[in-house]
């Protein structure tokens, strides 16, 4: 086993890197809040509020995506990969996807299902 696998498992994850990943998540949320809502930021008068919304909140989302996926890929690739472990992860993710899909369908049918006219 390579040396970096042994040292990473002995030390665990770096909390500063995890904090950076959380900040990147908030940057992505801020981007979605500004870009994908019904309010047009471009209609605001030029001022500190518009500059903050456009430069910081809207622009930070693209940077946040790069940071988040880079850190996630680093942690994912830092452990030893086997076919068995990868298939196990896929099986777990498929079960979760099936559970949440069925839960949302049941919720939809109970509260906002198709109405008969």
What would your notes on this structure say?
It is built from 4 helices and no strands. The chain starts with a helix and ends in a 5-residue tail after the last helix. Helix 2 (15-35) crosses helix 3. The model is unreliable at 3-10 (pLDDT under 50). With 117 residues, the chain is mainly α. The chain is flat.
Could you list some keywords that capture this structure?
mainly alpha, single chain, disordered N terminus, 117 residues
**Uncertain residue ranges:** 3-10
Shape: flat
Instruction: List SSEs in N-to-C order.
Output: HHHH
Q: Report mean pLDDT, rounded to a whole number.
A: 81
Number of beta strands? 0
Number of helical stretches of at least 4 residues: 4
Determine Rg (CA atoms, Å): 21 Å
Strand content: under 5%
Largest sheet: none
For the termini, the CA-CA separation is 66 Å
Instruction: Give the % helix.
Output: over 70%
Task: Specify the structural class.
Answer: mainly alpha
SSE topology:
Elements: H1 3-11, H2 15-35, H3 48-77, H4 83-112
In brief, what are we looking at here?
This protein has 117 residues and is mainly α.
């Amino acid at each position: 086993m390579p040396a970096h696998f042994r040292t990473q498992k002995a030390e665990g994850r770096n909390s500063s890197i995890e904090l950076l990943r959380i900040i990147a998540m908030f940057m992505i949320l801020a981007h979605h809040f500004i870009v994908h809502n019904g309010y047009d930021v471009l209609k605001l008068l030029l001022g500190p509020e518009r500059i903050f919304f456009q430069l910081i909140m809207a622009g930070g989302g693209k940077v946040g995506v790069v940071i988040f996926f880079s850190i996630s890929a680093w942690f994912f690739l830092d452990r030893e990969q086997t076919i068995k472990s990868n298939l196990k992860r896929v099986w777990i993710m498929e079960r979760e996807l099936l559970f949440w899909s069925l839960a949302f369908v049941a919720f939809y049918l109970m509260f906002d299902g198709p109405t008969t006219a």
